[in-house]
Amino acid sequence: MSRNEWLPPEQWVDRLPKNIAAACALFTDPTGRVLLVKPNYRGHWLFVGGMLDEGETPEQACRREVKEEIGLDVEFGRLLLVNWTPPMPERPLPLIVFIFDGGVIEPDQIRLDPGELDEYRFLEPDQALPLLSVNEQKRMTVALEARRTGATRYLSGGN
Questions:
Q1: What is the mean pLDDT of the chain?
Q2: Does the pTM exceed 0.85?
Q3: Domain 18-156's class?
Q4: Does residue 49 contact residue 66 with C-beta atoms inside 8 Å?
Q5: Angle at 149 between CA 24 and CA 103, to 5 degrees
Q6: Which residues pair with 124 in a beta bridge?
Q7: 138, 155 contact by CB (below 8 A)
């Protein structure tokens, strides 16, 4: 596009590629079991977290979602994983997921939001896998490895 063809800012922004983003936290209990939550609007289990609101950073969204969903106001550890997944029929935009280290918590610290979540469980990773979507299975496996090794990971693609 030449200088003479520049668009007004609002038209330029409308033509930019679009992505959506989510931020989640990987929590474990003192024995190393992973915390999963069961939303009342999904058929599978998830990490605690959710979509970024407009203007929110991934850290802000994660903190807000954790406080809303399980009643904890925590400082997160480092970023464990960034995952880009392509559009799908039920989600026509690419999704970028950030997973932060939520640390170790005790089950009695959780105050579940019954308006959004049906239940929570702390599970061994092999027990958690069948409850998760294919993408969440990959995220959990890689996030646990990232926590163990200290290296932030990146995943691209998805099913």
A1: 92
A2: yes
A3: alpha beta
A4: yes
A5: 40
A6: none
A7: yes
